[in-house]
Amino acid sequence: MKKFILVLQFLAVYFSVPSQTAADGEAIRNIQWTTKTVAPGVVLKTCQQVSFFNSVQSISMIEIDTLTAQVDFKIDCSSSEYHPVSVFGRRNNAIAAINGTYFMTTGSSVGQSWHYIKIDGQKMFPTVLNEFSTRATGVFTVTDGTVDISTWNQDKEAANAGNAQYALVCGPLMIDDNVDLEMWDNDLTNIRHPRSCVANTADGKVLIVAVDGRQSKYAAGMSLYELRYFLRQLGCVDAMNLDGGGSTALYVAGEPNYGIVNRPIDENVPGKERNVGNILYITPRNDVSKPYILSGKSPGGVGGMRVWLKAGGEITKNESNQLVAPYIFDYTGYNDFELKERISGTKIIWNDDRINSHPTLAFDSASLLASNRKADYSTFYSVNTINKNGTFLGFDEYGSSHPKFRYFLMADKNNVYVHDGSNTTGGVNYAFIPYQDNFNADFNLYSSSYGKKYDTFVLNGKEQLSTTSNFLTRDYITAKLQIGARNSYPVTINPVKDEYYYRGEVAEIIAYPDTLTASEHVRVESYLAVKYGITIDNPEYRYTASYGTRWWDGANAAYKPYSYYITFIGRDDNSGLRQLRAKSIGNHILPKDGCLLTLIHADNNIANDQYFVCTGSTTDDLTSKTTLNLEDGSCEVMSRHWKFNASSSPSQPFGVEIDIPAALSINETNIGIVVKSGTDYTFYQGTLNAAKNKVSVDNITVKKADLMYLALNKMNTGIENLSSGNIKILHDKDNHTISVTGLQDKSYALSIYSVSGILLYEKSGNLQHTSTAGFGNGVYILALKNEGNQIVKREKIIISN
Question: Quick one: which of 332, 434, 582, 702 has the fewest CB in 10 Å?
C-alpha cells in the first residue's frame, strides 16, 4: 500500500502545474500582441509560441470596447445536430464567435446543451441537475444591450435568468466582481487543456479568448488556475470558463481558414475544427444602418473558403510569362498545390488583361494544378472558358469502393457535361448543355453546391441540374482537388490520350467546405459577375454587394427589361473589388452581340466604399431607330438603350465607350449619347475613333433610373431665318386640327410626335396652308425641317376641349 501511495505522489508531482510567478505576470503583461481592427471598437489580438508558466503558449483573443463598439452579443444553439464554430458564425453574420457551453455528443440528443441557454427571451435548454455544483456555476447574460458575467444557481434558473434576453450558463466561474472563486477541483481544473472563456475588464472591455493546447512546441494549454492568472494580468474582474479541449475555436469573419484564427485540435489533428452545439457571438447592432467593414478580403464578403485561386497580383510570373508558385491560395494554410506536368516542360501561362482588365491562367490540356491533401468540398465557383474538349475539375476519391475521379464539369466536342459525382459514365444524374456561340471565346460563370440534401449546377445564374445524390458529403468520402484533371470515365469510345484534360482559361476559382446559404450564393456570384462583366442568365437576378447592398434588382419591374449586358463600375472593400473600367462580355441569351458598353471612372479612383454605377440594356434590334425630341431640337437614336442605377445622385463623373454595330448608319459629326433624367434630355457630344467602330463620351453624370441612348444624328438646333418671317404652327382645339402657315414657296417636312417621342404623322413637300385633322386631346411635339433636314421650328401643342 505504501508503495502504491508513493507512486501516486510521484505522478501528482510529475503532472502538477507549477505555481504562477511574478516573472509569469511580467511576461504576460509584456506580450507583443499582433493586432487587427476587425470593426470599430473590436480588435483581434494574437500571439504564438510565447513563453510563460514554464511552457509555450499560443493565444487568440477578441477585445470589444463596449464604450465604442456598436455590436450585439448573441447566442445560437442546435437542438438536434451540431456544427463547426465557423459554420455557426457565418450563418449568423457574426463579426466574431467562440464555442459556448458543454453539449451532448452521442445519441438522439447530439448537440443539445448540458446547461441553461436562453435566446430572444426563450428558454432553450435546462441545466442537468448534478452540474450546478461543478461546471454550471457561472452565467453570461445580455439584458437590454448590457452584458454581465455572474454566479448561477437553481434559483436563478427558476427565475428564467430574470429580464435577460440572452443567457449562457457554463463554468467554472473563475472571477466574479474582482473576487477569485473556488473551483471544482478535478482534472478539468488542474490539467492543461485548450481553453475558451469570456471575461470583463474594469475599463469596460469584453474579452473572448481562445487558448490553444495539446500541441507540442506550439501550445501547451493552461490549467484553469493559470487561465485565471493570465486574465488577471489583462485587468479582468469577471471571467467564466467555456467548453474547451477539442471544442476551442475562435471565428473572425473574413479571416483565412474558414475564419478560424486559432489552431483547434480535434481527434489529435492540429487545425481540425470540431462540431459544437452552441456559440457565443457578436454581430453588428441592429440599429446601425451599415454593418462594419469586416477584416480581410473575401469573395462577396463570404469567408470560410477552402481554396481561392485568383489570376491576380498575388500570383507571380517569370520573364517567359510562365507562372511561379504558389498559383493558388489554400486557406487552410497548407498551400500545397503543385503543377503536375503530363508532358515535360508544360506550363500554365499568364494572359494579361484578358477580361475587364483582369488576367487569366491558360491551361493547355497537358497540365493541371493538384493538391495532395484530402479535404471536403461542398460549394464551388469558377469563371472560365471551356472552349475545347476537356475536363475542368476533378475530385480524386478516397474511401469509396471505386477510387476514381468524380467530376463536377467536363466537355466533349458537342456538349458541356454536368456530373453529379457518380461512379458511372456521365453520372447517375447528369445534364448535357449544347455549346453556344459564347462558349468558343467568352467567359462564363459557373457555380455548384453539393449539400447533404441537394446538388445544383448553375451556368450564368441559370440552374442546369438538380439532383439528390450526396456528392462529397457521404461519410466514407474525402477528396483531393485537381484543376484540369483527367476523366476516368471517357464519354467517347476512342478518346485521344489527353482529350479529357482542360483546355481553356481560368480567371478565378473558389471552393468552400460546406453549403452556402442562398444570400451567400448571391453575394459570391454577384462579386464574380461584376468583376468579370458576366451578365447572369436570369433577368430577375439581384446583384448584391458584400454588405447586402442591392447593386441591380432585376426582379424590379422597372429594371427587369434592362437586365441584359449589365456593366458595373464601383468599389466593395469587403471583396477587394475595384472596378475602374468595366465592360460586359456578353450574354448568350441575346441573339446578337454588338453595341457593348464600357464604363470608365473619370478620375481613375473611387474614393468611397460601396459606391457604384451600373447599367443594363434592352434587347431591341441593333438596326432599329427612333427619334427623341429634345428641348432645342430632335435626335435620331438607336432603339436599344440603357437604364442606370447609382449609389449617389448625381453620380461622380464617368466616361462611356460604345461599340457601334457595322450595320448601323450614323452621322459622324453629330454622334454622341442622350441621357434622359425624368422629363429632361441632355445631349453629350461624342468622339468617333479612327476605325469608326467606337464612340467615346467623357464626364457624364447620371441619377438612379436615368435612361441613356446612343445618338446617331443630332439635328442642328438653330431656327432658320426665313424670308417671310411669318411661319406659324396653329391648332384648333375644337376641330382637333393642326395647320402650318407662312411657308410661301419653300419646301419643308412636318413631323408630329407624341411626348414620348413616337412619330404620329409626317408629310413633306409644299406645306403652305396645309392642315391635318384627327388628333384627339393630348400633348404633341411638332418639328418643321427644311430641305437640309435642319429643324427650323419646334413647338409644343396642347389640344383639349
Answer: 434
Q: Do strands 625-630 and 654-659 pair parallel, antiparallel, or not at all (unpaired)?
A: unpaired
Please identify which residue in the block is written with the cell numbers 436563478.
156
Residue-by-residue DSSP string for 696-718: EEEEE---TT-EEEEEEEEPP-P
For 299, list phi and psi in degrees, rounded to 5: -60, 120
Question: Phi and psi dihedrals of 578, rounded to 5?
Answer: -130, 110
- Grid cell locating 196: 475558451
**Closest Cα partner for 467 from 454, 482, 452?**
454
Cα-flanking dihedrals φ and ψ of residue 732, to 5°?
Answer: -115, 105
Please choose, from the candidates 427, 479, 484, 478, the residue with its C-alpha nearest in 3D space to the C-alpha of residue 457.
427
Tell me the residue ranges of DSSP E strands in 647-758. 654-659, 672-677, 680-685, 687-688, 694-700, 707-714, 728-732, 737-741, 748-754
Joined together, the cell numbers standing for residue 473 give 458529403
Give the DSSP letter string of 331-350. Answer: TTS----EEEESSTT--PEE
More confident residue, 109 or 426: 109
* Spatial separation of the C-alpha atoms in residues 46 and 94, rounded to whole Å: 19
Measured CA to CA in angstroms, residue 309 lies from 324, 326, 329, 347, 348 at distances of 14, 10, 6, 16, 13
Residues 6+ apart with CB under 8 A from 224: 172, 174, 183, 188, 189, 190, 195, 241
How far is the CA of 15 from the CAs of 11, 223, 566, in angstroms? 6, 11, 67
Provide the pairing of β-strand 34-39 with 42-52. antiparallel
Looking at residue 331, its pLDDT comes to 52
pLDDT above 50 (res 642):
yes
Rounded to whole angstroms, how far apart are CA atoms 726 and 637? 32
The DSSP line for 561-617 is GG-EEEEEEEEEGGGTEEESEEE----TTSS-----EEEEETTS---STT-EEEEEE
Nine cell digits for residue 516: 452556402
Read off the DSSP letter of residue 400: S
Find out whether 231 and 239 touch, Cβ atoms under 8 Å: yes
DSSP 152-184: --HHHHHTTTTT-SEEEEES-EEEETTEEPP--
Is residue 233 within 8 Å of 53, Cβ to Cβ? no
Q: Is the full-model pTM beyond 0.70?
A: no
Alpha carbons 420 and 418: distance in angstroms, whole number:
7
CB 595 within 8 A of CB 638: yes
Read off the C-alpha cell for 263. Answer: 489552431
**Count of Cβ atoms closer than 10 Å to residue 313 Cβ:** 7
Across the chain, mean pLDDT equals: 78
Q: What whole-number distance in Å separates Cα of residue 628 and Cα of residue 587?
A: 28
**d(C-alpha 395, C-alpha 408), whole Å:** 8
**pLDDT tens track for 365-420:** 677 777 766 666 778 888 887 655 556 666 555 444 443 445 456 555 556 665 54
Q: Cα(first)–Cα(last) distance of the chain, in Å?
A: 120
Beta strand residue intervals within 78-160, DSSP E = 83-84, 96-99, 117-119, 122-125, 138-143, 146-151
Asked if 52 and 18 touch (Cβ cutoff 8 Å), the reply is no
